[in-house]
Amino acid sequence: MKSFTYEKANSPAAAASAAVRTTNAKFIAGGTNLLDLMKLEIETPAHLIDVNGLGFDKIEPTPEGGLCIGALVRNTTLAADERVRRDYGLLSRALLAGASGQLRNKATTAGNLLQRTRCPYFYDTNQPCNKRNPGSGCAAIGGVTRQHAVIGSSDACIATHPSDMAIAMRALDASVQTVRSDGTTRNIPIADLHRLPGDTPHIETTLAAGELITSVTLPKPVGGTHIYRKVRDRASYAFALVSVGAIVQRDGTGRVAVGGIAHKPWRVEAAEAEMQRGAKAVASRLLDGARPTRDNAFKLALVERTLAAVLTDAKG
Amino acid sequence: MKFDTPATTNPIDQLKIIGHATSRIDGPLKTTGRATYAYEWHDVVSSPAYGYIVGAAIAKGRIASMDLSRAKVAPGVIAIVTAENAGKLGKGNYNTAKLLGGPEIDHYHQAVAVVVAETFEQARAAAQLVQVSYSATTGAFDLSAGRDGAAKPRGRGDDQPDTSVGDFPGAFAAAPVQLDATYTTPDQAHAMMEPHASMVAWDDDKLTLWTSNQMIAWTTGDVAKTLGLPKDNVRLISPFIGGGFGGKLFLRSDAILAALGARAANRPVKVAMQRPLMFNNTTHRPATIQRIRIGADRDGKITAIGHESWSGNLPEGRPETAVQQTRLLYAGENRMTALRLAMLDLPEGNAMRAPGEAPGMMALEIAMDEMAERLNLDPVEFRARNDTQVDPEHPSRPFSQRQLVACMKTGAERFGWSARNAEPGKRREGRWLVGMGMAAAFRNNLLMKSGARVRLDRSGTVTVETDMTDIGTGSYTIIAQTAAEMMGLPLEKVVVRLGDSSFPVSAGSGGQFGANNSTSGVYAACVKLREAVAQKLGFNSADVAFLDGQVSSGNRSVPLGQAASDSELMAEDSIEYGDLAKTHQQSTFGAHFVELGVDVATAEIRVRRMLAVCAAGRVLNPKTARSQVIGAMTMGVGAALMEELAVDKRTGFFVNHDLAGYEVPVHADIPHQDTIFLDETDPMSSPMKAKGIGELGLCGVAAALANAIYNATGIRVRDYPITLDKLLHRMPDT
User: Fold this and answer.
1) Cα(B560)–Cα(B122) distance, rounded to whole angstroms?
2) Considering the entire predicted model, what is its pTM?
3) Which of A40, A96, A126, A232 to mutate to test the interface with B (most CBs of B within 10 A)?
């Protein structure tokens, strides 16, 4: 771990402006991902801005009938919230499928969205990695890639986004509220938050330098049956090979977002038009253009089969 | 004490303390955090410096240059040791690759430097400033590519690379029912909870090493040999060990680097190996490719059985002896086994829990399931028809005890095996395809010399000292039970001190030989102490009884402590073995039964029930024995379903080198586990009449799962671990 300076921010705007004032600064909230990465010197911030004192720890109804979730609401709290469990079951289930109780107690809503890939080549600083060290190459391509992306990847990066929560947020059409270093705020639809790797896999989101997430807002509940199905080699405490987050209405229409297959939560609205025709039709649109490796080609079949099981479950 | 004739009745047979389900006597120390693990000797050395290991970034080649200038001036740095400034180092007897590499690099993450600083954080930060440039050369990293060029390894004792009885090729060719199949097992990591960790303090040219090690005498010797010291100058202390599984049988780099770091820093240094280094820096269980051929007549009698295994290792390394059990487990007049070893530049392969039999049984017991199906026989019945009570290679040599058939039949009865549908893929419950599988369990019983010292004080307390280790197995407890039984004391009147090189040399912990041999050593010492007590108290030692803290004969009874009223009484002895293991084959037996579900959509595998039935001599403590067996069953689930060191075959390293990438079972993976121990004593094994159990519980488990997966789905996977991607393309439509 490299030495770093530290400050505790007093206000969101102060935090955002401190982040651009100081070279190589990072926000820290739960720290469950950042600290690990710092110990391995995958992340080497020179300055940490602790945002834990900023409030943002409430879950409040919005005038539109949705929920506004403070950026610092812990995963445990969010998963257990009565309104979330009642109206956004997908979110609660996705949260509880991730990490461990201890980690969920610390991890925050915004931090969960911003966690970094678990690609083992990203984690080994002896290996080239365009995400960790831009321009150095990608050791994963041609290597051990069973866990890696099958769609939306590039010749520079085949990493996946590891979050379960983000899959639910994507299916629920959440939006992210931020404050920028000049004090202005903006609203980012979750679909626009995460980027595909392209030639710049180190740039993972559309957030500007110093831009701080203050809340995540869920629109009015859409009803339906909420299912989060996470498929993995062991029963708990593992990242998804594939996960399917679905909201299925009585008439068989609905929404699907998929985890474990791409650099961002993978949702193709056009594919959802096929929901009443079944999993095969949806998966074929959802995975159109997939470029799997030999190690992870099974994920294509796994998405379709998992989705089929989810649609069957949704019928009760 | 020489043990060269079968045991007769002795004080252990009273079973007042031995054989009882006693909780671990060291349990409270562990649950309250007072057991001192290697990194936790805070009271002994108050201000150690901290070492952090730098691992090689290439698998094979040379260090072209090393720039320490930035690291040297980093805050808190006291010293940096590399091969260049470490002085001349020898190599121990038990490690293949050097523990401090450079300029030649033998494997990925081989240590190339240790950075010593005032704090752990400073050492870690400075270690990342060590600049090493390498000149990499190509290496061999792929076992399947190296298979054809694999050579016949050197034999070792009875462990010969090739064995042959009768006419295997002829008998196999003539057999009306045949199987010829190839199985693979992956490289596996011990992945124990406590990493390798050491602290060293020098006093002139003597050193004390606090470490985490299963084999005190081996490692003391290897420390001395590596550092060029007389063995007497090395004191090794390792009373508590947070898991080993064979990964801590040997001297490893943490200990040597702590010693070199402490010498360079001129103060005590502690080194804990960082988790991401553990998978490539240390040893692992090597991958195997195994070809098994079995021929049988139509009645299910095996006429030919052949087992070949290929594994890889660094030059001078040993093969994984995966054919071992096939020489002994089933009858058959015509037999062959062969081991071949490919030179690979992966990290060093070495022992992991049940080396040989664990991967060997993973293959053989699938093959037996496949043969049973071809013969249209129940898998239990097929195995029973091929039972043998003698060593099949040497029919004049009987097994000392062999209750394999009883284990299988008892297990079948208790598990409800008769409910299994022999036709696979037929039982569906909701989203689950449900199957049952079984496998035999087999592991040899090894006899090793083992010593102990016992002291009696005036309060009637007996203290046992032996360099035996407790790797979480229960050694403290069974040793206390042994001494208590022998001396007629309650358990509370026995103190056990382990894991110190100043104590008599024991068998140590490995190869499931620890329990039987170390307690037999304690038995031997206690026999001597009983004689000394009797003599001291003026008894005729032939008819004296030790019971309830009293020593008595006829109508005279004296408190035991009285024998030490003026000074402590001490006795020391070892158990040594004669030819009983030559005249009788000593092995342990069992049967594993598994029921599991395979998700019809995703092919996720979830175990529902497990049962192990074991026949392994006297069970010294049913509670610690059960813990050993259920722990081994858990490890077997890992081997079957998830454990694999993933090799990057381009650059030659294990990619998934942390506990997120190398998955072992979590609680949610493990269902109800049952164990049954058949009533057995083995008078050929030792005065304790016990045998090993800690590895038996692993051997066969993974195959039982593989067979259950086949029974559930009709899909036969011969390539471990059996992950869902290997099933998915053949699963039925949902």
Assistant:
1) 56
2) 0.98
3) A126
